[in-house]
């Protein structure tokens, strides 16, 4: 396992370590797993995770966290209107490789043979069976596992998979093209994240065709290797307009909405004594306040959400209608008085 993990952000994104806060600018972050001598590790399927430690932006990664050939990458996308320094770090669960006869691996009683001196296989050998119903089972404590197999074009077929007693699909051990040679130490099945615990994977051979197990890799969710930190700066937009084709007029930029502005508007709305207004208006404003509070509670609220919050608050405030209180009286009990055409009315108690 490697004790040296580097992200090549400083060189891979040298022209893009400063982003614009336009919501679409990207920085590319390349992670390379190296050994203690600085050589890239070509073993497949280390489990790499990128994370934002602080600052604005959104990480974009692929559907799988596994490294291929010791390499993985991610993108940092700027957020509209949010500026500052973003600190990013990567961590790797290197995993533990088990040869086909390693700890926790058991086989059915009959039908299995060990093929030795296979140069490309992990540990120089693999286990093979053509007997229908023959099975191999891995029991491990961890979060997920990967199967490495030996593939050939002829004589190999499909095996079924169960994980923790439940059907989990099938694996085709036949090579896709009839070319010279075989494929060894090839990762062909992954369990996905099963959650930390004790798990069992069973692979069962089908009818008349061989399956061949080279190795398993198991993960426990622990980051054995942590990278250096990369800092990417997001700057405010430099122009009031977005650049377009020279043949077209520039498009006006959308107004940038800041969370602080929405927060100030919420505080203003919460200062109203809503009992003085109609129930329907008070309800609309309360709903706008609750929605804005949910948006402001997010780690990185989007411009669309902030803009909608502000619009709803504006509508709620402008739609308030004061309650009109009518006080009945009778002319017989009124005391009329005053000057210059203005009159004062005193209501008799109890009327």
Task: Explain the overall architecture.
With 351 residues, this protein is mainly beta. The protein contains four helices and 22 strands. The chain has helices at residues 9-12, 259-270, 279-296, 303-318, and strands at residues 4-7, 18-20, 26-34, 47-54, 58-60, 71-77, 84-93, 96-99, 105-107, 112-116, 125-129, 135-142, 144-151, 158-163, 166-172, 183-190, 197-205, 211-219, 225-226, 230-235, 241-242, 251-252. A hairpin with a 2-residue loop joins β14 (158-163) and β15 (166-172).
Keywords:
five-stranded mixed beta sheet, 351 residues, 36% strand, six-stranded antiparallel beta sheet, 14% helix
SSE layout and pairing:
Layout: E1 4-7, H1 9-12, E2 18-20, E3 26-34, E4 47-54, E5 58-60, E6 71-77, E7 84-93, E8 96-99, E9 105-107, E10 112-116, E11 125-129, E12 135-142, E13 144-151, E14 158-163, E15 166-172, E16 183-190, E17 197-205, E18 211-219, E19 225-226, E20 230-235, E21 241-242, E22 251-252, H2 259-270, H3 279-296, H4 303-318
Parallel strand pairs: 2-20
Antiparallel strand pairs: 1-3, 3-6, 4-7, 5-6, 7-19, 7-20, 8-18, 9-12, 10-11, 11-18, 12-17, 13-16, 13-18, 14-15, 14-17, 21-22
């Amino acid at each position: 396992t490697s004790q040296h993990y580097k992200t090549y952000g400083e060189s891979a994104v040298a022209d893009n370590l400063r982003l614009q806060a336009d919501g679409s600018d990207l920085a590319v972050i390349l992670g390379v797993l190296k050994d203690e001598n600085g050589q890239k590790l070509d073993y497949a399927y280390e489990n790499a995770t990128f994370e934002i430690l602080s600052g604005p932006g959104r990480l974009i990664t692929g559907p799988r966290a596994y490294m291929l050939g010791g390499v993985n990458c991610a993108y940092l996308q700027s957020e509209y209107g949010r500026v500052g320094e973003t600190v990013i770090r990567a961590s790797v669960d290197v995993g533990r490789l088990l040869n086909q006869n390693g700890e926790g691996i058991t086989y059915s009683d009959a039908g299995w043979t060990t093929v030795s001196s296979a140069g490309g296989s992990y540990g120089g050998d693999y286990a093979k069976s053509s007997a229908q119903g023959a099975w191999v089972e891995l029991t491990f404590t961890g979060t997920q596992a990967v199967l490495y197999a030996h593939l050939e074009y002829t004589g190999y077929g499909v095996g079924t998979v169960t994980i923790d007693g439940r059907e989990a699909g099938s694996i085709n051990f036949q090579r896709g093209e009839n070319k010279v040679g075989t494929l060894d130490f090839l990762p062909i099945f992954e369990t996905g994240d099963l959650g930390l615990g004790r798990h069992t994977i069973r692979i069962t051979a089908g009818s008349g065709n061989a399956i061949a197990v080279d190795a398993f890799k198991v993960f426990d969710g622990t980051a054995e290797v942590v990278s250096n930190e990369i800092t990417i700066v997001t700057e405010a937009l430099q122009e009031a307009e977005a650049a377009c084709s020279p043949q077209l007029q520039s498009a006006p930029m959308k107004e940038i909405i800041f969370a602080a502005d929405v927060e100030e508007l919420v505080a203003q709305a919460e200062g109203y004594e809503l009992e003085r207004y109609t129930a329907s208006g008070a309800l609309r404003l309360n709903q706008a306040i609750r929605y804005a509070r949910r948006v402001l509670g997010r780690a990185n609220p989007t411009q669309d959400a902030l803009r909608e919050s502000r619009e709803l608050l504006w509508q709620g405030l402008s739609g308030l209608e004061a309650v009109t209180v009518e006080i009945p009286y009778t002319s017989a009990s009124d005391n009329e008085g005053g000057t210059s055409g203005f009159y004062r009315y005193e209501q008799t108690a109890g009327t």
